[in-house]
């Protein structure tokens, strides 16, 4: 092998090694930043990796909101109408956060089974629900969203399905124009 060829081979192997190392570092960073979504039933069944950050989604149970006087500490319960998970959060809740509404919280599960959230997201209007929450509720009860006024109790699956629906809006009459 000539010295010129040997230099090219070393250069090519160096480039391949550099690209491999960069790819491995990028993959490692991606795995560390992935946040998985779980619903309360999955948390209750132990499917959550211990010590890992994840997203918990469901409905805030009616009557479960408790605020600590003089602090920003809040406790509430998230349900998927099959299981409940207590949540602890210290901070300002979103303006649209309320009992009986959809919520997604980011955080960790502590040793006593309480989800300690570091971020809480609430739905932004009456028709929106985070897609993961909608799929989870649909899988559990066949209905993709609970009505805002419906009772959100663990034993009441028909609170979401049995709520009266709003009347559909009338369609605007189609105008026909003839042009020349």
Note down, in words, how this protein is organized.
By secondary structure, the protein is an alpha+beta fold. The chain is built from four helices and seven strands, in the order αβαββββββαα. The chain has helices spanning 3-33, 40-44, 131-141, 158-161; strands at residues 36-38, 54-60, 66-67, 73-79, 84-90, 102-109, 115-122. A five-stranded mixed beta barrel has the order 2-4-5-7-6. β4 (73-79) and β5 form a beta hairpin. The N and C termini lie far apart (83 Å). Residues 144-180 have low confidence and may be disordered.
What are the SSEs and their pairings?
Blueprint lengths: L2 H31 L2 E3 L1 H5 L9 E7 L5 E2 L5 E7 L4 E7 L11 E8 L5 E8 L8 H11 L16 H4 L19
Parallel strand pairs: 1-2, 5-7
Antiparallel strand pairs: 2-4, 2-6, 3-4, 4-5, 6-7
Helical content stands at 25-40%
Secondary-structure content class:
alpha+beta
Low-confidence parts lasting 5 or more residues at pLDDT below 50? 144-180
Largest sheet: 5 strands, mixed, barrel
Over the alpha carbons, how many angstroms does the gyration radius reach? 25 Å
Q: Report the end-to-end length measured between terminal Cα atoms.
A: 83 Å
Widest β-sheet, arrangement of strands: 2-4-5-7-6
Number of β-strand runs: 7
What's the shape? Answer: elongated
Q: Give the percentage of residues in beta strands.
A: 15-25%
User: What is the mean predicted local confidence, pLDDT?
Assistant: 76
Helix/strand order, N-terminal first = HEHEEEEEEHH
Number of helices: 4
